Amino acid sequence: MRDIAFAISSAEPEQRTLAFAKIKDLRTHIEGLKTACAAQGVELGIDTGN
Questions:
Q1: How far is residue 50's CA from residue 35's CA, in Å, rounded to a whole number?
Q2: Record's superkingdom (predicted)?
C-alpha cells in the first residue's frame, strides 16, 4: 500500500483523480469478494477500512 500511496502522491493532479477512482473500484470489488467468501464460511483477513 505504501508503494501505491507514494505513486499517487507523486503523480500529476489529473492522474491522482484517476488513481483514486480506480482505488475506489478496487475497494468495492474486494468488499464484494469478502462478502461472497463469508457466505461460504471463508473469512478473508483483508481490511478495507470499514
A1: 13
A2: Bacteria
pLDDT tens digits in sequence order for the chain, 50 residues long: 667 778 888 888 888 888 888 888 888 998 999 999 999 999 988 887 76
State the DSSP code for 40. Answer: T
Residue owning grid cell 483483508: 46
d(CA 42, CA 39): 7
pTM over 0.90: no
Would you report the helix, strand and coil content of the chain in percent, each value rounded to 5?
70, 0, 30
